[in-house]
């Protein structure tokens, strides 16, 4: 199977102040970029410029399809502590389709490699997280092999974040390459995310795609490779929503 990457699970709208586009902007750009389905995943409430929690609760009002493009209700939550707790209460969780989580310095300041690993591992083991965002971030060193093995065991996807190579976490490439190699070795699921902060970056996977191609990571294990693979993954988490969409 070839890489199709027709789903983007990681986008921010201007509900997060440091992002610049609306849901409409993303819908308009999606067909031009080969994206059939995308998740709106603004930052969880504990981030400094995150939207209020009602932003997430009320995302229930999004249409499932707009102009032929599917929209998922999501969040990029924050790992808060060593126990792997995230900044989502039940009212938010029950409104959403997909829950990403990751380290962001304003919420969890980088610690040593053992502490970072413990926090991320506990988030993975919590059963409350579907994707760990930018685990290759060199500002938050982790024991990569331990995390990849755990991700395989718990069936939680690790993200290869294309934006990391372009903007904020440029030194992440080597870590991400190792994550992709080990994920192939241990059969851990991955996602490829644009982490778009404006609609022109929707579906921008160029560097991440080249990397997983080089590594030989199997396309059918990339959670967001197709609409069907994404829905199949969510179904393993008890989120059975495929029938609500009409492509
Ligand atoms: Zn992030
Ligand atoms: Zn993000």
TrEMBL record:
<dbReference type="GO" id="GO:0005829">
    <property type="term" value="C:cytosol"/>
</dbReference>
<dbReference type="GO" id="GO:0008270">
    <property type="term" value="F:zinc ion binding"/>
</dbReference>
<dbReference type="InterPro" id="IPR050243">
    <property type="entry name" value="PHP_phosphatase"/>
</dbReference>
<protein>
    <submittedName>
        <fullName>Putative hydrolase</fullName>
    </submittedName>
</protein>
<keyword id="KW-0378">Hydrolase</keyword>
<feature type="domain" description="Polymerase/histidinol phosphatase N-terminal">
    <location>
        <begin position="7"/>
        <end position="81"/>
    </location>
</feature>
<dbReference type="GO" id="GO:0042578">
    <property type="term" value="F:phosphoric ester hydrolase activity"/>
</dbReference>
<dbReference type="InterPro" id="IPR016195">
    <property type="entry name" value="Pol/histidinol_Pase-like"/>
</dbReference>
<dbReference type="Pfam" id="PF13263">
    <property type="entry name" value="PHP_C"/>
</dbReference>
<dbReference type="GO" id="GO:0071978">
    <property type="term" value="P:bacterial-type flagellum-dependent swarming motility"/>
</dbReference>
<dbReference type="InterPro" id="IPR003141">
    <property type="entry name" value="Pol/His_phosphatase_N"/>
</dbReference>
């Amino acid at each position: 199977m070839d890489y199709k990457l027709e789903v983007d699970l990681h986008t921010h709208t201007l509900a997060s102040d440091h992002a610049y586009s609306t849901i409409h902007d993303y819908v308009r750009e999606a067909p031009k970029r080969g994206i059939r389905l995308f998740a709106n995943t603004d930052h969880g409430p504990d981030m400094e410029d995150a939207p209020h929690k009602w932003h997430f609760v009320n995302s229930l009002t999004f249409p499932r399809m707009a102009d032929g493009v599917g929209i998922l209700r999501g969040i990029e939550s924050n790992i808060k502590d060593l126990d792997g707790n995230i900044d989502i209460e039940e009212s938010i969780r029950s409104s959403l389709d997909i829950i990403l989580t990751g380290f962001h310095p304003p919420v969890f300041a980088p610690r040593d490699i053992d502490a970072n690993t413990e926090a991320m591992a506990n988030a993975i083991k919590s059963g409350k997280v579907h994707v760990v965002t930018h685990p290759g971030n060199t500002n938050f060193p982790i024991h990569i092999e331990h995390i990849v093995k755990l991700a395989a065991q718990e069936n939680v996807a690790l993200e290869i974040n294309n934006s990391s190579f372009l903007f904020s976490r440029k030194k992440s490439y080597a870590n991400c390459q190792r994550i992709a190699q080990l994920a192939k070795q241990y059969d851990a699921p991955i996602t490829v995310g644009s982490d778009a902060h404006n609609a022109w970056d929707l579906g921008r996977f160029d560097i991440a795609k080249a990397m997983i191609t080089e590594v030989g990571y199997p396309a059918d294990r990339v959670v967001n490779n197709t609409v069907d693979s994404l829905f199949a993954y969510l179904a393993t988490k008890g989120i059975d929503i495929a029938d609500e969409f009409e492509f």
